[in-house]
């Protein structure tokens, strides 16, 4: 029985010995499972980190877009403000220019009206300087006679081209200074055009001849007065012309009003 008890104990001990590796294996397996679970848990938690970073990145992108939008809006507002300021400055400049132009135009009109009034007064004085016999003439005939004398005065200068002022005054029974004043008045009325030289002569230059002089200067550039004078025969005709042809003389003799002193 003692031997049998040893056998039994031996068998139980052997079984216990056999069970211990299993327990160790079970413990190791349990430990492995815990580690695996921990690792698995860690792997399950890892996606949370990128997810948070993604949200943060999206939030940052939204903030960046909003900041860019505000910057663009500010730039547009600045451009609009600058454009409005520029338009306002240009509008003010246009108004100032238009006001200046109106002022100059008004001054020119006032000056022209004053010159025309002075020319009209001078013309009335000038007509009275001619010898007109009032006996047997009506006011209309006197007016017609003055107009005829004015026409003759202008035509005489145009035909003579270069006329001494003293000779012109003697031709029409006027003082030399009065003759000069009449020429200046007629120039202001665009009835005559020309120059007075320092020798007491008036040189009639037609509009066409003045244009020829201007064309000559444009063609040759800057030219001196002496050069222009030496070449003036190219574009200014200084030869006197007959005062009247036969038809004109016959017509003037027939139409001369009574009481008006005939021209020599």
Automatic annotation (TrEMBL):
InterPro entries: DDRGK_dom-contain, DDRGK_domain-containing, WH-like_DNA-bd_sf, WH_DNA-bd_sf. Signal peptide: none annotated. The keyword Transport does not apply. Residues 22-33 have a biased composition (Low complexity). Residues 1-100, 240-264 are annotated as: Disordered. GO terms for molecular function: ubiquitin-like protein ligase binding. It holds the Pfam family DDRGK. It is found in: Endoplasmic reticulum membrane. Keywords: Endoplasmic reticulum, Membrane, Transmembrane, Transmembrane helix, Ubl conjugation pathway. GO terms for cellular component: endoplasmic reticulum membrane. Residues 36-47 have a biased composition (Acidic residues). The keyword Nucleus does not apply. It is a single-pass membrane protein. Residues 58-68, 81-100, 240-254 have a biased composition (Basic and acidic residues). Gene3D superfamilies: Winged helix-like DNA-binding domain superfamily/Winged helix DNA-binding domain (1.10.10.10). Transmembrane segments: none annotated. Substrate adapter for ufmylation, the covalent attachment of the ubiquitin-like modifier UFM1 to substrate proteins. Belongs to the DDRGK1 family. This is DDRGK domain-containing protein 1.
